Amino acid sequence: MTQEIGTTPEVGNFATLGLHPSVLAAITAVGYEEPSPIQIQSIPLIMAGHDMIGQAQTGTGKTAAFALPILSRIDAARREAQVLVLAPTRELALQVATAFESFAAQMPSVNVVAIYGGAPMGPQLKAIRNGAQVIVATPGRLVDHLSRNGGLLSTIKFLVLDEADEMLKLGFMDDLEVIFNAMPDDRQTVLFSATLPASIRGIAEKHLRSPQQVKIASKTQTVARIDQAHLMVHADQKVNAILRLLEVEDFDAMIGFVRTKQATLDIAAALEAKGYKVAALNGDIAQNQRERVIDSLKDGRLNIVIATDVAARGLDVPRITHVFNIDMPYDPESYVHRIGRTGRAGRDGRALLLVTPRERRMLQVIERVTGQKVAEILLPDAKVILQARIRRLTQDLTPRVKDKENQNVELLAHLTTELNCSVEELALGLLAKTTEGQAFTLAGVEREQPVMTSRSRDDRGQRGTRDGGGRGDGAGRSESRGDRGDRGERSGDGARERRAPLALSEGKVRCRTALGIRDGVAARNLLGAILNEGGLSREAIGRIQIRESFSLVELPEEGLERLLGKLKDTRVAGKALKLRRYRED
Questions:
Q1: How far apart are CA 205 and CA 184, in angstroms?
Q2: Alpha helices in 8-106 (DSSP H)
Q3: Are 173 and 250 part of one and the same domain?
Q4: CB atoms < 10 A from the CB of 181, how many?
Q5: Cβ proximity of 69 and 39 under 8 Å
Q6: Which of 154, 197, 262, 436 has the smallest C-beta neighbourhood within 10 Å, fewest atoms?
Q7: Nearest residue to 134 (alpha-carbon basis) of 88, 165, 103, 164
Q8: For residues 214 and 54, is the Cβ–Cβ distance under 8 A?
Q9: Partners of 508 in the beta sheet?
Q10: Which CATH number characterizes residue 530's domain?
């Protein structure tokens, strides 16, 4: 049975869903009033003991959809592991664990432990020994615990796989099988995934019992409330474009996405030099520091975080009003996932996208997949920037000027006497101090802004860092050696296309797809698609070479035809993958 939005009668509040009184009390305490569509449909199914597949995007309230009914059904008196939630990343595991703790606030005997890599094993082991009933874990670290304690999951009654498609993209298939085999067969299993590729359906068929299905919010519905805009810019002009846009955008908090770890550091440093409260978030940053960055963004000590896609997994901060796609995402799904960080729970959001000349095709793909136009905006000129600065200064000074209880009257008199100046002269001096470092005249703003020239479309200045993104930080590097633009491509495939492929890895066969750089495809896209649809482990895939008009992928020779059959309907960047064995004549 598949349930869609609208097929279930509207439910006015959580009290009608049969939840435990202590859970209802916790819901009221955190300010929840009405259940979301995913909660309306999922909670009754989970309360009734059904296995379930939920297809829902991040931000639809799915954590509460499984946490509330599971907490209502566990035996709080039993000091043993009863609930296991698997999450693809540390950030999401922490987010889910925090949600469980909030919903169990009125159940003092229920304890939650988060198990993830990058943190000491000791406290995790102690929490397990003390009988934590809820375990929220990343697959890799949980397998480490199972190697020490094979019976760890023998008492599990409820299993949740959260963002299952992301777990497979990250290569956790083998770990999942180990975990499944360590649990009782009579458990209740709930699976949530944004997409349902063949690999996810295979897991459901093997490990779920007659699952009920719930589907919520298509991608176009998810992004409909977000105001989207793009700016055409050359790669080496991105930092200047960012600084200009930040001058005129009225944001509370912002997350900026880039492709590489180095770019997070470079752009964060450039913004910090201009006075912004900003931090970088990437895979090299220690877990405790990552947590501090996220907490600082939540409480206002930071206003901007520059992050890679992987580092931002699980980041849910209500303050985020803007998402800035500084580097083009690798595929439309990543774009939707990125901009879903804003515009949540009915709030308005804004998403900005920088597009280099070579990325026009990917912009078109994004618009086609989401079914929405991403409007083009122009770079703000000096006049617009000056108006924005004056507006912000006015907003800052207005409550101070109108403060009838200002205690500085005596100080004002003292300063005018001490400095032998008029009130107007003193005000001008204080304004000069307040606005120090920023021009407040048209000529001054024009002098600050570098000239943004419109160069030829081939972007000859981008040698070594294609579209400003540098080399990717994922598996299967794309062999970019500096884009030489249209000049190097006019004679057919060009010199880059004719390079001999690298030596073949042992036990592998080279396969070819007609998708390449010109289609907006990167190595990460191909890797994720093959992992997701082919059901392979990450180690099974060899080198991935991305060329202008095609790409080469090393796949296992054993079972190749069966694998290619699984991948025959796979699409990447909106286009058919169509992998074929590559004949090197």
A1: 17
A2: 21-30, 37-47, 62-73, 90-103
A3: no
A4: 10
A5: no
A6: 436
A7: 103
A8: yes
A9: 556
A10: 3.30.70.330
Token code pair at residue 202: 């295979």
Residue scoring higher pLDDT (402 or 580): 580
Instruction: Please state the rounded mean pLDDT for residues 555-559.
Output: 87
The CA distance from 358 to 510, in Å, is: 27
Both tokens of 421, joined, read 């100046």
484 neighbors 554 (Cβ within 8 angstroms): no
| Alpha-carbon torsion (278, 450, 227, 192), positive or negative | negative
Computed on alpha carbons and rounded to an integer, the radius of gyration of the chain in Å comes to 27
| Range in 149-153, 221-225, 359-363 with the lowest mean pLDDT | 221-225
- Residues 176, 267 within the same domain: no
* Alpha-helical segments (H) within 189-237: 198-207, 219-223
The side-by-side arrangement of strands in the sheet containing 52-55 is 2-3, 212-215, 52-55, 188-193, 158-161, 83-86, 134-137, 112-115
Dihedral of the alpha carbons of 11, 12, 13, 17, in degrees to the nearest 10: -20
- What pLDDT digit, counting tens, does each position of 339-357 carry? 888 876 556 789 999 998 8
In a domain, 460, yes or no: no
- The CATH number given to whatever domain includes residue 81 is 3.40.50.300
> Do 433 and 505 fall within a single domain?
no
User: Confidence class of residue 489 from pLDDT cuts 50, 70 and 90?
Assistant: very low
Q: Which residue's entry shows tokens 């700016």?
A: 231
- Residue 193 pairs with which residues in a beta bridge? 55
1 exposed, middle or buried (CB, 10 Å; 0-12, 13-18, 19+)? exposed
Q: Which of 115-129, 233-247, 328-342, 439-453 has the lowest mean pLDDT?
A: 439-453
Q: Report the C-alpha gap between 432 and 518 in whole angstroms.
A: 50
Select the highest-mean-pLDDT range: 48-62, 72-86, 322-336, 441-455: 72-86
Based on the fold, state whether residues 303 and 241 are members of the same structural domain.
yes
Structure tokens, 464:
């070594």
Q: Is the pLDDT of residue 172 over 70?
A: yes
- Note the pLDDT tens digit of each residue in 499-534: 445 666 678 889 999 888 877 788 877 887 888 777
Which of 157, 190, 217 is at the close of a domain? 217
Domains in the chain, number: 4
* Domain boundary, last residue among 168, 187, 217: 217
Does 141 lie in the same domain as 80? yes
**Which structural domain range is residue 434 located in?**
383-401+408-448
Q: Do 22 and 47 belong to one domain?
A: yes
Helix (H) or strand (E) holding 192, with range, is strand 188-193
Q: Does a structural domain hold residue 454?
A: no
- 295 inside domain: yes
- Neighbouring CB atoms inside 10 A of 122's CB total 8
At residue 167, the pLDDT reads 86
SS (H, E, C) 331-347: CHHHHHHHHCCCCCCCC
Task: Tell whether 224 and 183 lie within a shared domain.
Answer: no
| Cβ 230 vs Cβ 356: under 8 Å | no
Distance, CA of 29 to CA of 368 (rounded, Å): 42
Residues 6+ apart with CB under 8 A from 40: 8, 10, 11, 17
Q: Is residue 527 part of a domain?
A: yes
The one-letter amino acid at 104: A
Is there a single domain that holds both residue 238 and residue 189? Answer: no
Angle at CA of residue 165, ends 163 and 166, nearest 5°: 70
Q: What per-residue confidence (pLDDT) applies to 335? A: 84
**Which tokens hold the place of 365?**
């793909």
